[in-house]
Amino acid sequence: MARMLFSLVVGLGLTCGPALSGPIADVICAPTDQMIRKLTHNFGTTRSASGLRSPDEMLEIWADSDGDWTMVIAYASGQSCIVAMGAHWQETGAKSPTRPPIPG
Questions:
Q1: Residue 62 burial (CB < 10 Å; 0-12/13-18/19+)?
Q2: What is the pLDDT of residues 1-30, one digit of tens each?
Q3: Which three-class secondary structure string do you get for the chain?
Q4: pLDDT of residue 19
């Protein structure tokens, strides 16, 4: 995971000194199309989950087959930022229970 972070930072032409030595201490941002290209082509990740955080922000989880994951916030402005990374991502396949009908 540290190797992936280092490669991503260098590949996007960004700097974030403290993030390279431990948990992400700085947010890493780039244009969304550039971020997607790096995550998919260079690191073999796919978007495995997403949801609206606000009308202008989409939270995305990108994961690879080894379980390394990256949390990205994609903004309507065209920027995306990595806000967290980790390991051991697992798809549970479980869905939320259906909501009971509202009595009428």
A1: buried
A2: 545 555 555 555 554 444 444 445 567 899
A3: CHHHHHHHHHHCCCCCHHHHCCCCCCCEEEEHHHHHHHHHHHCCCEEEEEEEEECCEEEEEEECCCCCEEEEEEECCCEEEEEEEECCCCCCCCCCCCCCCCCC
A4: 41
